[in-house]
Amino acid sequence: EMDPQERAFQGRIDRGEKIEPKEWMPEGYRKTLIRQISQHAHSEIVGQLPEGNWITRAPTLERKAILLAKVQDEAGHGLYLYCAAETLGISRDEMFEQLHSGRAKYSSIFNYPTLSWADIGAIGWLVDGAAIMNQVPLQRCSFGPYSRAMIRICKEESFHQRQGFDIMMKLCKGTEAQQKMAQDALERWWWPSLMMFGPADGDSVHSAQSMAWKIKQDTNDELRQKFVDQTVPQADFLDLKVPDPDLKWNQERGSYDFGEPDWDEFFQVISGNGPCNEERLGARVKAWDDGAWVREGLMAHARKHARRTT
Ligand code: FAQ
């Protein structure tokens, strides 16, 4: 049975009230939010790497400026989200430690390589498209700081999605080689994008509780379906073929039927065995180690300053 404090808390959630950092909350609620928000922050930071790979090779100055701005936005989102998680009583050092030791997850999608310029288009179109589908409902999350962070982040993600679709449009209206490059990118990013929404509902351990707490508003499968319904007409518009033989419009449901993602691959990727896990984590650990002298210098300066002013 729920204790009275927890019942009162659930009442606030049910009435649609926002929960703020200093207010009482069940330990499970705090832990779930720290897990989700910190993993979301890690995803933004690790998510800079696949696209960062193409900044020096963007085909025009304009594309380079746009890509630089997008990757910088992702850094901003990460920092914003770390701040939101810190309000729950975890330090940034602890969060980094969890990432670097492999205990904290980050989105499976960033463990795939970016092999061609079309991948930058596909990431903006599909990966940011999936991120928006997942994050728009998070704007209504019951935890105040997370919900407010999502409002700004979603605005920037919309720009990201449009820039990706714009790259795809350009390629699809281009030469045969460019169209092929776009098709190849769609084939490699389609299934991993569907996996971003998490395991099928039957295997989603956190969904029921997170939905009762209004941390999540929709199940993983509901959002995945919405994403498919939104994206297939966009692929048709680009004259690209979605690599799913089971994809079919279902008149009765007013939705697309589609095939099952390869869940073995998903679980391999989230347990550290995807194509780029080692490289991505290695890059983050190296950046952390390379920055040690800056952190040490700042701390020494702060200590000196504190001695002088006391
Ligand atoms: N990858 O019980 P559930 C972006 C884990 S967008 C890795 O269903 P939950 C923008 C899950 O953590 C990407 N792990 O879990 C951008 C749990 O393991 P745990 C980031 C996954 O939390 C675009 C276990 O599986 N967005 O960065 C994944 O209820 C372009 C069981 O799963 C967010 O993080 C996965 N795909 O639902 C940046 C959004 N799916 O923690 C750069 C916020 C599941 O017990 C470039 N997060 N797992 O060890 C969420 O909405 C939720 O956490 C879900 C998962 C929906 C991801």
From TrEMBL:
It holds the Pfam family PaaA_PaaC. It comes from the Bacteria. SUPFAM superfamilies: Ferritin-like (SSF47240). GO terms for biological process: phenylacetate catabolic process. GO terms for molecular function: phenylacetyl-CoA 1,2-epoxidase activity. One of its GO terms (cellular component) is cytosol. PANTHER family: 1,2-PHENYLACETYL-COA EPOXIDASE, SUBUNIT A, PHENYLACETIC ACID DEGRADATION PROTEIN PAA. This is 1,2-phenylacetyl-CoA epoxidase subunit A. It comes from Oricola cellulosilytica.
